Amino acid sequence: MFKSVSVHRITVLLLALTIYGAHVKGDEALGDTENLKKASSGQNAEVDTRNDSWIENLMWNLLGYATIIVPAAFIIRMLKNSNFNERSGTGCLFRSIQLCVFGTPHVESADVEAGGNKGGSSKDESSPPSSFSQTSIKLLFCAAGLQLSYLTWGVLQERIVTKTYEEHLPDGSVKLVKFTNSQFLVFVNRSLALVVASVCILFTRQPRHTAPLYKYSYSSFSNIMSSWCQYEALKFVSFPTQVLCKASKIIPVMIMGKIVSNKSYPYHEYVVAVLLSAGVSLFLLAADPSGKRTSAATTFSGAIILLGYMAFDSFTSNWQSELFSVYKMSTIQMMFGANLFSCLFTVWSMIEGGNFLSAVGFMMSHPEFAYHATILSLTSATGQLFIFYTIQSFGPVVFTIIMTIRMMLSIMLSCIIYNHPLSAQALLGVIVVFVALFLRVYARYRAKPSTKG
Question: Which has the higher per-residue pLDDT, 5 or 202?
Answer without folding.
Answer: 202
